[in-house]
Amino acid sequence: MFHKEGSKIILVALVIAVALIFLSDYLVTLAWLRTTVQVIILILLLLVLQFFRNPSRPVAVTDHSILAPVDGKVVVIEEVYEPEYFKDKRLMVSIFMSPINVHVTRYALSGIIKYSKYHPGKYLVAWHPKASLENERTTVVVDNPIFGEVMYRQIAGALAKRIVNYAKVDSQAIQGDDAGFIKFGSRVDLYLPLGTDIQVVLNQKAIGAKTLIAQK
């Protein structure tokens, strides 16, 4: 199953791959070289397909848990000052995505979307300390009846050139549903209330809509 954000790119990649394979049959006379070229083309096509994969992940929705919004590695767990919306200290959990991770962003918890804003910006590497505030990004706040207001921020990286955000103010977020997509590597930051019972550790592998980030 592939994400809808990749439909056009997958179609174009498939057409180009097929065309190049047929052309190689006519233009490359050496059998070993022709085979090598065709294998490389197929590998590149597979890389495109794997990037836009969208595995089904059923969720037992509950207001008492916060799930990982994306696949990746937990790279930050620390108390920070959040200047855009809360303007106070929050507990930040950051998940870094490599190009081989699933890049679907899913709602970490259910609730009413109170804030959703896109910010143009730079394309620093996603783990750069200033990436959260200087890179291209979207900021979304979900108001949950148990945790209160929780923010997540999609952040573009050095390779990511487009962030897709489906969150609309006053609409209902459902835990585990698609919230957006980040193309070609990046990270997502969660901003939780101080004192939240965090269930992950640094360098832990997170799976979107599966790994438990926090609970009450």
Task: Provide a compact summary of the structure.
Helices cover 21% and strands 36% of the residues. With 216 residues, the chain is of the alpha+beta class. The strands form three sheets. It has an eight-stranded antiparallel β-sheet with strand order 9-5-6-7-11-3-2-12. A three-stranded antiparallel β-sheet has the order 4-10-8, with no helix packed on it. A two-stranded antiparallel sheet has the order 1-13.
Instruction: Bin the strand percentage.
Output: 35-45%
Instruction: Assign the CATH topology of the largest domain.
Output: Glucose Permease (Domain IIA)
The helix tally amounts to 3
Helix content: 10-25%
What order do the SSEs take from the amino end to the carboxyl end, as H and E?
A: HHEEEEEHEEEEEEEE
As for the number of domains, it is 2
Whole-number radius of gyration?
20 Å
Report on the structure:
It contains 3 helices and 13 strands; from the N terminus they run ααβββββαββββββββ. The protein has 216 residues and is an alpha+beta fold. The protein has 2 domains: 48 residues; 151 residues, Glucose Permease (Domain IIA) (Distorted Sandwich). Helix 1 runs antiparallel to helix 2. It is elongated.
List the helices and strands and how they pair.
Blueprint: H1 7-27, H2 31-51, E1 65-67, E2 72-82, E3 88-97, E4 104-106, E5 111-119, H3 131-134, E6 137-144, E7 148-156, E8 162-165, E9 172-173, E10 178-183, E11 186-192, E12 205-206, E13 212-215
Antiparallel strand pairs: 1-13, 2-3, 2-12, 3-11, 4-10, 5-6, 5-9, 6-7, 7-11, 8-10
Helix pairs in contact: 1-2
